Amino acid sequence: MRDVAIIGIKNTSFGEQWDRSFRDLVVEAGVGAVDDAGVVGEKIDSMFVGNMSGGQFVEQEHIGALIADYSGLAKDIHVPSTRVEAACASGGLALRQGIYAVASGIDDIVIAAGAEKMTDVPSAKASSALAAAADREWEGIMGATFPGLYAMIAKMHMHKYGTTSEQLASVAVKNHHNGQHNPIAQYKTPITVESVLRSIMVADPLHIFDCSPITDGASAVVLAPADIAHEFTDTPIYVKATAQASDTIALHDRRDITTLDASVVAGRRAYEMAKMGPEDIQLVEVHDCFTIAEICAIEDLGFAKKGEGGIMTQNEETAIGGKIPVNTSGGLKSCGHPVGATGVKQAIEIVEQLRGEAGKRQVDGAEIGMTHNVGGSGATAVVHIFSRNR
Amino acid sequence: MIIMSVPRFWRKQVARYNLVGTHCKKCDEYFYPPRNMCPACRREGEIEDYKFSGKGEVVTYTVIHTAAEGFENQTPYVLGIIKLEEGPSLTSQIISEPETVKIGMKVKPVFRKLGQDGEQGMIYYGTKFIPDKC
To answer: Is B18 part of any domain?
Structure first.
């Protein structure tokens, strides 16, 4: 198996973008990443695109070919393009498939992208499309929503470990604080614990400010074999681990409601592959689709003891400058959550940090970072570890 | 808004109306929602239908204020995970004043309307839960 490096990156801006179409967004991200890497289209061997639900959001399937076409990679050079879907983990999984392609030796230059255009439908329709990531026949039919499922995780976490609404809110406050320094972020406005607690209740105990937004956006990276990465860039970022795990589709079938076993196992597999432990990771982008999700994530990945994720966040140990900075990009909460793009955007944040290009979000001396991308209420988890050193 | 197509709902009607799930005779695990393959025994499993008593307790719950599409006129409603006495857990609504619902509370099943496709459309029925006082 060959070592793999990221040699080019690009995010579009994240937000509500009525003036831009699905294909506009993906082309901007793809072309930007290729430009950043300094490669030409003829050199691209394949592409993988994470997209959760083109069918429901823009009534468009066959996303792989569409994107190859509008990127100028279809008609003359016929680059193979594959759509990858695992609900909100689609982006992380597209990246993983791209890494497979390069590591296997079959492809050299590969684009891994992710995209979602969520505001071409009313928000009720968008929520309904997202609910399809849960079990439609046995959760959705009973009136379950996504905030509702995570609210049940939160309720149990509070019951079992004494986690408080203020601790949940402190996740959102920290992520908005980080997001204000991210030029692509959907929300660049700092918020307070009081404003989170004052915001309307969506599903008790989750307020609207405990929830990530509906977002349009696309992200892309260019991958290459580590052996030739220096031909393209002075600062290739190396993939030290790619890991994935599955769990039951429905929340009610989980071993423990407050633990995402898929995150625990994907994390463990990643640590084994990289020959590292949580103590080696200097910053992490976790899947904070809801505030409680970030608390579970830092526990499940080994950065906090089970039950202590809330207090750790409240004590600012996960802030930039803290023990383990979490979601320096602003996370899904503040940067935005175009579901198919998120997993790739997380990798781009780590690359910017490890290159030392994260501006006011920069974690000093960062050399090793992790990403954690979750599908549904935890049925899929994808974890990657990246390093500045090979 | 169509909550679910007629054939898709109809084919699991018995399971939804009467809490009929499955049981693996080989390892003695119970499944609701029903599974046709035992996840532990896989191909070696021996699956049979099983009607649950429906007695159980609340594992966790939430009060939903922003409804799922098709459930707008029911807010606020209590959604919970119920652990049945035979072992499996399911997601359903708990019919009770939100402030009376507690984790660990005993519940029993009731046959209720889940929703309806507009004025003229299909009515969906299924099993919800109420507090079991005794």
So the answer is: yes
